[in-house]
Amino acid sequence: MPKSRDDLFESGANPLGNKDANALRSFIDRIESVQGEIDEFKADQKTIYDEASGAGFDKKAMRKIIAIRKKDRDEWKAEQDKVDAYLLALGLA
Amino acid sequence: MPKSRDDLFESGANPLGNKDANALRSFIDRIESVQGEIDEFKADQKTIYDEASGAGFDKKAMRKIIAIRKKDRDEWKAEQDKVDAYLLALGLA
Fold first, then answer.
1. Which residue does chain B place closest to A69, by CA atoms?
2. What is the DSSP letter of A84?
3. What residues of A are in contact with residue B28 (Cβ under 8 Å)?
4. What is the ipTM for the molecules in this complex?
């Protein structure tokens, strides 16, 4: 069994042992192809954010709203109540 | 002009000033809908990683390969040479 990278390269052995490089390549191609779709949708999101920004809405505030809507509503309210109490206790409210 | 959140809620004024809550809602709905597509593709990626893992390939190593393929090849090689030199210098190679 090769003990180092150099041994591996010199041995001429399949660095994947008994596994197939083409299978690996195919998995990686598929993952990259799906990533291409994701990247396109992300670009779409950016376009919508830019459009909203052009209409006078703040991107950062919108991101916060979207994060809040993802959370369970009761859980979020409980969190918020704690933050409000801490702000008040520290004279920041 | 309302000075605090309480003033704002009591005034009955539109908290967005002259901007339309429906426009804001529509932007947020569109962003969330695109996010739904992204989440589905991410689930597809997870399925492919699981399949690859079932075929004996290591997910972490695959993620590294994908990150490396995203980079400019020469830039990556230059980075790698530096890391190799530092490993050697520190007796870690």
1. B32
2. H
3. 62, 65-66, 69
4. 0.79
